[in-house]
Amino acid sequence: MGKWRPTARSFATVGSVALLAALTGGGITAAGKTAASSPVTLSVEINGVLSGKNAAEAVWLTRDVFPRFEKSMAARGQTVHVKLIGSGVSGTDYATALALDIKAGGGPDIFDLDGPYYGEFASAGYLKPLSQVIGPAASRWPGWKLIPPTVQAITEFKGQQYGIPGGTDARVLFYNTKLFRDAGIATPWQPTSWADLIATARTLQQKDPGIEALQIDGGSLMGEATTLQGYLPILAGAGQLIWNQTTGKWQGNTPAMRAAANFYHTIYASGLANSQLQLGPNGRNQTFQAFSQNQVGIYLESEYLYESVIVNNGTGLYPMPNRNQDVAWAFIPAETPGAGIRGQNFVTLSGGGGTTINPHTKHPQLAWDLLTFMDSTQSLLRYEPIKQFISSNSQVDSIALKSDALLTFISQKCLPITAYRPSLAVYPQVSLLIQQLAQNLSTGMSVNAALSSYVSQLQKTVGAGNVTNS
After folding, report:
1. In sequence order, which residues have a C-beta less than 8 Å from that of residue 448 and are 6 or more positions away?
2. pLDDT by residue (tens digit) across 248-260?
3. Which of 80, 310, 390, 401 is the most buried (most CB within 10 A)?
4. 74 found inside a domain
């Protein structure tokens, strides 16, 4: 599963007035239970530990958030002790252990959970909607107004909210301005259609046949990067997400899937993208390195490329000395203006997760008090010195990211138009099929043959009745 915050990112926010209201104790809770006046212990589980994996979050919670929350509650006559349950395991192992604990009626009061697992946990009964666990107070939380509806979808399933979204990210087109200048292409650059994007790549290729003009991941060995940084954003540009939450159907040989497949076939068959880089076990790092060495013109990626790979601050995987001068970014265009999902001109896909409340908690109102305290503006801004992040909340981002042009662009421009992968247990299996589809297209298989193979395997995986071809 991995950390629910793409790079130790954090939560949403709530104003100080709402925070004070949320921290009032006593009385009947929204869930219909009497708030305890005797000492209470709450537990919070994350996939992180103080001296290892995701240490930044563990430090923030144990040394800042929990002590302040305990002090705030004590001032209101309620003794609360908060303890951290830390894990340092793989994402899959973390989710599996949580599921087993909750199935047995146990588990922590609050826990982090990656977005793709919300549907699986909800379907299995391991999560309940906040409206059931907390009551009407959950929907009245002022923080929802500060989280774009598109981002709220991280922790939604079938129209109901199961948690509070945390940090997120988005995909954009990075481009090398030096190569653009050499090819006579004006910058700043913003393609308005796939045709514009392909035409620019062809101009780059004609100027310098030795470079890879356009990198859009297309190999099974690229793993989830091929799905999330490749096929799904292109599919969104053709007007569809891979799974329709309303109909419960997966995209088979539909017009949008054919359009996306044709796009892949075009860029690889014409040599605009390098198929060989998609086939090796180290292909993603090779493309990172090539971009840092001015050998890739346009690259569809998340901010991870800019903030962690090519950054020249001693921590970058492949530092790019002139990154600030030679790299810029643009929206991913829809196939044609207005053809993207929701009728959008531009599209993006995001990752992320959230924090939620165990339906078995004995103290739902106190757990909600703690969760919203963690999600307060004050708490989030105190996390900033430990780890910079893209919050799910625009108010926090407007303060914290103002010195970072890319993260500001993603927060203000991309998150309002983003979409997420389906939170279904079968999604990882479907993702593998998409990766193979992309690889077949990138290595020369015809669109008809590649889609036929994909649909055949998809129907076996999810059931023929759950696939649409129209």
Report:
1. none
2. 999 999 999 999 9
3. 390
4. yes
- Do residues 21 and 91 share a domain? yes
Checking if the pLDDT of 173 tops 50, the result is: yes
Q: For residues 356 and 38, what is the distance between their CA atoms, to the nearest angstrom?
A: 24
DSSP H helical ranges for 337-418:
364-374, 377-383, 394-400, 405-409
- The pairing of strands 249-251 and 467-468 is parallel
* Shared domain check, 374 and 276: no
Query: What pTM did the predictor assign?
Result: 0.86
How far apart CA 162 and CA 398 sit, in angstroms, is 26
Domain boundary residue, one of 402, 417, 432: 417
Does 429 fall in a domain? no
Q: Are residues 430 and 462 in contact, defined by beta-carbon separation less than 8 angstroms?
A: yes
Helix (H, G, I), strand (E, B), or coil: what is residue 40? strand
Domain that holds residue 240: 171-347
Where are the strands (E) in 142-242, listed by range?
156-157, 160-161, 164-168, 171-176, 212-215
pLDDT of 31 over the 70 cut = no
For the chain, the C-alpha Rg in angstroms (whole number) is 23
pLDDT band (50, 70, 90) for residue 6: very low
- Name which of 279, 382, 117 is nearest 287 in CA terms: 279
Q: Is 293 found in the same domain as 265?
A: yes
Residue 250 structure tokens: 């997966």
With CA atoms as reference, report the closest residue to 452 among 300, 257, 184.
257
Helix, coil or strand: residue 185: coil
CA–CA dist 7, 455 (Å, integer)? 34
Beta strand ranges found along 344-469 (DSSP E): 346-347, 352-357, 467-468
Task: Give per-residue pLDDT as tens, 413-434.
Answer: 999 999 999 989 899 999 999 9
* Number of Cβ atoms within 10 Å of the Cβ of 164: 29
- Distance CA(304)–CA(324), nearest Å, equals 15
Cα–Cα distance, 19 to 73 (Å, whole number): 12
Instruction: Say whether both 283 and 389 belong to one domain.
Output: no
Of 289, 324, 366, 420, the C-alpha closest to 69 is 366
The b/e string for 300-339 (b: 16+ C-beta within 10 A; e otherwise) is bbbbbbbbebbbeeeebebebeebeebbbbbbbbbbbeeb
In whole angstroms, give the CA distance from residue 373 to residue 73.
11
Chain Cα centroid distance, residue 14: 21
Q: Is 440 domain-assigned? A: no
Closest CA to 44 of 352, 351, 368: 368
Determine contact, residues 152/145, Cβ cutoff 8 Å. Answer: no
